[in-house]
User: Fold this.
Amino acid sequence: MCEDRKRWRLPEFCGLVRFGKDVSVSVLPAHLLGCLHRVYARDVCVHGNVVTFTADTSINVSRWNALRPFDSGKLEVDPSTRQIRYRLSLFHLTKVVTVAVGSFGVVALVVFGCTGILLSKPVFVVTFVLSLASIGGFGVGLSLAIGSVRFPNFLRRSIADAPRGGDGRRTPEGRLGGS
Assistant:
């Protein structure tokens, strides 16, 4: 399932991470592919200097996984500026939070509506709706804040472990640098 994802789902989180001149640009996309597999990414594909992936959003993935808040992404290795630009989709996270908050709202509306507490005063309805929106926004915002730190750190660790140079020099871990 290695197609170019032309239809991108919003909302998204974007950024960039720079890498040094000693990193082998020619093998960096393949190296990132391996690193993404280690954090349980699915459908990882390399097209030239572009790596696309789908994150495993199942319950079996650790909460500490760098891909947890995101459902898919695109990494572009730019050899001229020596940076990796990333674009990560938050569609799944937004969908889950919306369904959870909406379900909670329906249950609360039925419980409070049947007792007449909620419907007796319109100010309760407005307060209730604003409270649910705040809870949803907090859920998305907190996950994005955590992901906005974890994913760039994941990329930096991946770059630190990447093959160096194309002349056969060894990486700090003893592997040969690619050309």
About this structure: The radius of gyration is 21 Å.
